[in-house]
Design goal:
The protein is α/β, with parallel strands linked by helices and 506 residues long. The chain has 15 helices and 19 strands. It folds into 2 domains: 286 residues, no CATH class; 175 residues, Alpha-Beta Barrel (fumarase).
Length: 506
């Protein structure tokens, strides 16, 4: 029996799924993150998890994106061999139309981040197409589809190596995870692909992230296979590194490890690892020819009862009167609430600034005495001042740090750690780097009370804005002496975890 899958059913189902995952976390992730929050002992990490959980519920209630980076769309299709697509377009074309409709939805427009001509002009396609699609023909009369929206911050931390057959996968993972830093926004998941060829291992790692979080159940019943034993070993040893939520030091760096494998050549052992961030976004549906699939709305009562509020010990900062002496009074680990006006700018703006300075051209804005926020916000809808506007990965701006500080910049705000060169530049100029929580974009946007473009308007979401903020929450990640919380806190927590395990005889 042949089953007809209509073009419109597939388009509507893809569009609905992508809108759905933009504001609804998978409930298995929320339950696992809620459990991690309950046992977390690191104050900074616990605060970060509270922001992520609060942001998640706000997005579920308001139907707005969990993260300003609404991702590159990845689609895994298992096409039943008895099914026929009723369309004059290719399968890629049909699914891309679903992506287009989802990202241009007028009530919840999602950020278009996909650039054509990636090596040269890098021109935005404006609708987040094309998606990255994998298709497998399988027996049966249904079409099963997994869709995911993968943020660039976590995707950029992907790792791959052709190991020797005798090499340890665990040792390689433990070598790679610290190199990933916190730009992938932990706590999340690690997806690992083993075997096949280089490209197959990478695909397996990505596909594994579509799986259900079940580490708690696995540990409760005990592993039954070699792969399950490997999952548990990696889970325990990665969390023992003490990296913690957002790299701030703590007990929960990952919530699960997923592994898929495939037969490989006798001389080879390809291994890939891809992290999933705190904005874990994926959904699954099956078409059988009876119509489109619309995913069921989760019960908001299932979210943990966590309502983040600023810590009473936080230091309120007036950005409009901020001085270098004020900045030099901050210590790594201090929590601040920013008030007043700050500039924004990320990759494209920094590159253009550097080019203009090299040519002796005047800049569109004055950076002396200012603070800059690395962000590319989602377009606002309704009465919003700005759409979700969480931080982007700060290390991408590292090579511009010295140039920007030479302009008199007092501090910068971003996500995750800074590299050695940027940390050294911050110390040299007696500046500071402030970290905002990745994965709390809608919560952070509520602190933005005014927004206007003040430079490079043609760059769209990468333009320079001036934000007026009220009680914008950040942590001092690198202080004016160069003390780096992303180095110091994991070291402390790793030692603490080792000590506790020795006392427990583990």
């Amino acid at each position: 029996m042949t089953v007809t899958i209509s073009e419109s059913d597939l388009i509507e189902s893809v569009a609905d799924a992508l809108q759905y995952i933009s504001y609804f976390h998978p409930m298995d992730y929320i339950r696992a993150l809620g459990a991690a929050y309950e046992v977390e002992q690191g104050p900074a990490a616990k605060d970060a998890i509270a922001q992520i959980l609060t942001n998640s519920r706000m997005c579920a209630e308001g139907h707005r994106p969990i993260c300003q980076d609404t991702g590159i769309v990845t689609v895994f299709v298992k096409w039943g061999q008895q099914c026929v697509l009723d369309s004059t377009r290719s399968l890629q074309g049909v699914i891309d139309e679903g992506v287009r409709r989802a990202y241009l939805h007028p009530e919840n427009k999602l950020r278009a981040s996909i650039l054509a001509d990636p090596a040269f002009t890098r021109v935005n396609t404006k609708d987040n197409t094309p998606c990255v699609m994998s298709v497998e023909m399988v027996p049966g009369a249904t079409v099963s589809i997994d869709v995911a929206a993968k943020g660039g911050g976590s995707e950029n931390k992907s790792k791959f190596k052709m190991l020797n057959p005798s090499d340890s996968i665990v040792d390689w993972v433990l070598e790679m995870v610290p190199q990933m830093g916190a730009g992938w926004c932990p706590p999340g998941m690690l997806g690992i692909g083993i075997g096949g060829t280089a490209e197959k291992a990478m695909s397996l790692a990505k596909e594994s992230l579509m799986g259900h979080i079940d580490m708690a159940e696995l540990k409760a019943r005990g592993p039954r296979t070699d792969v399950e034993k490997l999952r548990v070993e990696i889970f325990d040893k990665v969390n023992a590194l003490g990296i913690g939520a957002q790299g701030l030091g703590g007990l929960a760096t990952i919530l699960d490890v997923k592994i898929l494998d495939y037969p490989t050549h006798a001389a080879s052992k390809p291994v890939a690892m891809i992290p999933n961030c705190a904005a874990t976004r994926h959904a699954h549906f099956t078409l059988d020819g009876s119509g489109p699939v619309f995913l069921e709305t989760p019960n908001l009562d299932d979210w943990p009862k966590v309502d983040w509020q600023p810590d009473a010990a936080s230091i309120r900062v007036d950005l409009d009167t901020l001085t270098a002496a004020d900045v030099q009074g901050w210590q790594q680990g201090d929590r601040l609430l920013l008030n007043g006006k700050m500039l924004t700018g990320r990759d494209a703006a920094h590159k253009r600034i550097a080019d203009m300075l090299a040519k002796g051209e005047p800049l569109p804005v004055e950076f002396a005495g200012r603070v800059i926020y690395y962000v590319g916000p989602v377009d606002p809808v309704g009465e919003e001042i700005v759409g979700p506007a969480g931080p982007t990965t700060a290390t991408r701006m590292d090579k511009f740090m010295d140039i920007m500080l030479e302009q008199g910049l007092l501090a910068c705000v971003g996500k995750a750690e800074r590299g050695p060169a940027a940390t050294a530049a911050i110390a040299k100029h007696k500046s500071a780097y402030l970290m905002a929580v990745g994965g709390a974009a809608y919560l952070v946007a509520r602190a933005i009370k005014g927004s206007k473009v003040v430079g490079f308007a043609d760059l769209g979401m990468e333009a320079i804005y001036e934000f007026e903020v009220k009680d914008f929450p950040v942590t001092v990640a690198v202080d004016s002496a160069g003390a780096n919380v992303h180095t110091l806190a994991p070291q402390m927590w790793s030692a603490k975890i080792r000590e506790e395990r020795l006392l427990e005889g583990v």
